[in-house]
């Protein structure tokens, strides 16, 4: 079976894969030599596969979103095709007008019919972006189409707060009885115009699901955990003036220190178990993604530099998930390379607050989520792997490929519950409870 995947990365690249799935074994091969969005795939014969690929990027090409490269790739034995074995010269073709296909209606019909034939009802449930456990055993989650939801220890759904885009972050409030949720907003085409709904940051009662208050920051933001105040970092990089943290307390909003413009590739640094707020801030106002420092927000509202985000001066490191352990931070990231992520280019590192590296663990895949119980560091990767590292020395305690009933999946979110077990939110809308392993 040939499967085409892909998306526009929001910057200028179109990324995706051509996956060849061996139906007898379930083995999967990514056959293209580099990332490329596949708009169409069709078997012309038993040996010929017709592909429609987007341009590699829209750099200086405003028509890229309406174009495609149609090619036919032939193999006498497609079962023998290995990783990246379709050559770049086979994919060379002039760009021509191409329709961006939308198979969602057909896919929904097929899934609805399949569920009905099994006596069940099908409904959409997608990416779980955040999970949190409570002391009484409940599980909170944020996912596509749902700002926040609560599951009882029995496994029954307690309440749901719906949202057109869905929640992306959950941060337990300082009162211990509510949770802050942050929604995503994407631009939607309405006629000839693109429209985006207003930002939504809401505090929700854990017991009832009642929306207690909604903040109106005026711009899109990310929640910054740590401390007694609610802190938001603006995402609106279109402004010319420097961005500042936005702090909310009982007396209302307060303008915080300058943090520069937010870069989605460089500045994510969600720190779990944070005793105070941490953010990544660049030292160059005109290029805030460069020379990033890990900084801490002190109680008086001043921002204090702790150490450079990259401990290798010649390397540029992208931001990633993090957690605080005592007087140190454990965080994941990836090393920028002009040809994409290189083998060993992703990492998890533990650094003391003076910047010294206590240990580092190198991998080939970026982390999607990270948490700790003080003894182990649990890391989920976009490859579907789940790894537990020893918090003291970074050695691998255990490693597994995440599967549900034999089917592989990928964790987008992860949290250590107060009871000690792992909570995992997956890309296919599931919430898993996993007992800690020795």
Molecular structure report:
This is PQQ-binding-like beta-propeller repeat protein. It comes from Streptomyces zaomyceticus. With 438 residues, the protein is mostly beta strands. Among the domains are: 2-117, no CATH class; 310-428 and 434-438, 7 Propeller (Methylamine Dehydrogenase, Chain H), CATH 2.130.10. 3% of the residues lie in helices and 47% in strands. It contains one helix and 39 strands. It has one helix at 104-117; strands spanning 2-4, 7-8, 14-15, 18-21, 28-30, 38-43, 48-53, 67-74, 96-97, 128-133, 139-151, 157-172, 178-183, 188-190, 193-195, 201-205, 211-215, 221-224, 230-234, 244-249, 252-258, 271-272, 278-282, 292-297, 303-308, 317-318, 322-325, 328-335, 346-352, 357-363, 367-372, 376-381, 385-390, 396-401, 403-404, 407-408, 411-416, 422-426, 431-434. The strands form eleven sheets. It has a six-stranded antiparallel β-sheet, with no helix packed on it. Strands 22, 26, 27, 28, 29 and 30 form a six-stranded mixed β-sheet that branches. A four-stranded antiparallel β-sheet has the order 6-7-8-9, with no helix packed on it. Strand 20 (244-249) and strand 21 form a beta hairpin. The longest helix has 14 residues, at 104-117. It is globular and about 70 Å long. The mean pLDDT is 92.
């Amino acid at each position: 079976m040939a499967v085409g995947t892909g998306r526009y990365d929001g910057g200028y690249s179109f990324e995706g894969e051509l996956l060849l799935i061996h139906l007898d074994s379930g083995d999967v091969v990514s056959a293209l030599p580099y990332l490329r969005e596949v708009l169409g795939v069709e078997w012309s014969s038993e040996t010929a596969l017709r592909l429609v690929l987007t341009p590699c990027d829209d750099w200086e090409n405003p028509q890229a979103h309406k174009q495609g490269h149609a090619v036919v790739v032939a193999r006498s034995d497609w079962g023998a095709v290995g990783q990246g074995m379709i050559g770049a010269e086979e994919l060379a073709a002039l760009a021509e007008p191409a329709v961006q296909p939308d198979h969602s209606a057909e896919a929904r019909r097929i899934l609805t019919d399949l569920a009905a034939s099994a006596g069940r009802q099908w409904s959409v449930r997608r990416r779980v972006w955040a999970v949190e456990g409570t002391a009484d055993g409940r599980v909170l989650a944020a996912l596509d189409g749902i700002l926040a939801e609560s599951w009882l220890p029995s496994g029954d759904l307690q309440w749901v707060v719906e949202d057109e885009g869905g929640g992306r972050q959950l941060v337990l409030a300082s009162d211990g009885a509510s949770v802050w949720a942050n929604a995503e907003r994407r631009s939607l085409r309405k006629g000839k115009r693109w429209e985006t709904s207003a930002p939504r940051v809401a505090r929700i009662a854990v017991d009832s699901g009642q929306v207690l208050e909604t903040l109106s920051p005026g711009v899109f933001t990310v929640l910054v955990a740590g401390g007694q105040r609610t802190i938001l970092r603006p995402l609106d990089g279109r402004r010319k003036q420097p961005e500042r943290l936005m702090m909310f307390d009982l007396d209302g909003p307060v303008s915080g220190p300058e943090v520069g413009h937010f870069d989605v590739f460089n500045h994510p640094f969600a720190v779990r178990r944070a005793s105070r707020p941490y953010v990544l801030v660049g030292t160059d106002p005109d290029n805030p993604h460069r020379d990033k420092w890990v900084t801490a927000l002190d109680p008086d509202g001043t921002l204090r530099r702790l150490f450079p985000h990259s401990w290798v001066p010649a390397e540029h490191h992208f931001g990633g998930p993090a957690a605080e352990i005592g007087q140190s931070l454990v965080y994941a990231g990836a090393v920028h390379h002009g040809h994409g992520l290189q083998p060993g280019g992703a990492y998890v590192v533990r650094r003391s607050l003076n910047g010294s590296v206590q240990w580092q663990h190198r991998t080939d895949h970026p982390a999607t989520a990270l948490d700790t119980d003080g003894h182990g560091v649990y890391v989920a990767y976009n490859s579907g792997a789940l790894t537990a590292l020893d918090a003291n020395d970074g050695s691998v305690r255990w490693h597994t490929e995440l599967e549900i009933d034999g089917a592989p999946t990928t964790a987008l979110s992860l949290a250590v519950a107060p009871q000690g077990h792992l909570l995992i939110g997956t890309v296919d809308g599931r919430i898993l409870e996993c007992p800690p392993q020795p």
